[in-house]
C-alpha cells in the first residue's frame, strides 16, 4: 500500500472522487500529518482568507483501512470513526479521501451511504 500511495502522491492536482462533494478535492503530494508520512490533499475553502485548506492521511492510516477493506470486504465510516480516531478528528472528509484513493487504485467502490466495498 505504501508504494501505491507514494506513487499516487506524484499525481499532483489529481481529483479524488467523492460521492457527494460539491467541489474538487485534489492531491498535493507527500508531507507530514500526526508526526507520520502522509498523502496531503487540498480542499476548497469557504473563507476569503485562503483559497484552500490542506489535510492529510498517513501511510499507516491507509494501511489499517486497507486491511479492514480486504479482511471484511467493506470500509465504513463507523469503523473509520472508531479505529482511526486522530484521522477522523481532523475531518470527516478524510474518510472519503481514503475511500476515493481506494477507488483510484481500483480496489474499492462506493456501495451505499458511508460504505465502500472491496473489489476482488
In short:
This protein is α+β, with helices and mostly antiparallel strands and 120 residues long. The protein contains 5 helices and 6 strands.
Q: How many distinct folded domains? A: 1
Strand content: 25-35%
Helix content: 25-40%
Q: Summarize the helix and strand pattern as letters.
A: HEEEHEHHHEE
Query: Structural class per helix/strand content?
Result: alpha+beta
| Spatial ordering of strands, largest sheet | 1-2-3
Mean pLDDT: 95
Please work out how many helical segments DSSP would assign.
Answer: 5
Task: Give the C-alpha Rg.
Answer: 13 Å
Shape: globular
Q: Which stretches are low in confidence, meaning pLDDT under 50 for 5 or more residues running? A: none
Characterize the largest beta sheet: strand count, sense, and whether it forms a barrel.
3 strands, antiparallel
What is the tally of beta strands? 6
- Distance from N terminus to C terminus (CA atoms, Å) equals 16 Å
Summary tags:
alpha+beta, three-stranded antiparallel beta sheet, single chain, 5 helices
Describe this structure in words.
With 120 residues, this protein is α+β, with helices and mostly antiparallel strands. The chain has one domain. The protein is built from 5 helices and 6 strands. It has a 3-stranded antiparallel sheet. A hairpin with a 2-residue loop joins β1 and β2.
Write the layout of secondary structure elements.
Elements: H1 2-9, E1 26-33, E2 36-44, E3 52-58, H2 59-72, E4 74-76, H3 77-83, H4 85-90, H5 93-104, E5 108-112, E6 115-118
